[in-house]
């Protein structure tokens, strides 16, 4: 059971990391500064949210591995 939970947590982490990397890429583009303010704020909010979720996913994997 804990093996399956660890697989799922790893898959979740991989998906979050892909989304995080995509946002990072967008934020690094030179034209990002000219995006509408609302769009930049939304991208930054999502980036921060996913960063927190990655931390939680990492902690979940740690907890599961201890079972």
Question: How would you sum up this structure, described in words?
Answer:
The chain is an all-alpha fold and 67 residues long. Helix content is 84%, strand content 0%. It has two helices and no strands. Helix 1 packs antiparallel against helix 2 (37-65). It is elongated. It starts with a helix and ends with a helix.
How do the strands and helices of this protein lay out in sequence?
Blueprint: H1 2-28, H2 37-65
Helix pairs in contact: 1-2
Fraction of helical residues: over 70%
Question: What would you call the shape?
Answer: elongated
Number of helices: 2
pLDDT < 50 stretches? none
Order of helical and strand elements: HH
User: Please, what is the average pLDDT?
Assistant: 93
**Termini Cα gap:** 10 Å
Q: Would you report the number of β strands?
A: 0
Whole-angstrom Rg: 15 Å
**Largest sheet properties:** none
Q: Please indicate the percent range of residues in DSSP E strands (runs of 2 or more).
A: under 5%
Structural class: mainly alpha
């Amino acid at each position: 059971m804990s093996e399956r939970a660890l697989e799922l947590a790893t898959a979740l982490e991989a998906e979050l990391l892909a989304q995080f990397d995509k946002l990072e890429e967008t934020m690094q583009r030179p034209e990002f500064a000219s995006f509408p303010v609302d769009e930049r704020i939304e991208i930054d909010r999502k980036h921060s949210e996913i960063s927190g979720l990655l931390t939680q996913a990492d902690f979940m994997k740690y907890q599961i591995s201890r079972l």
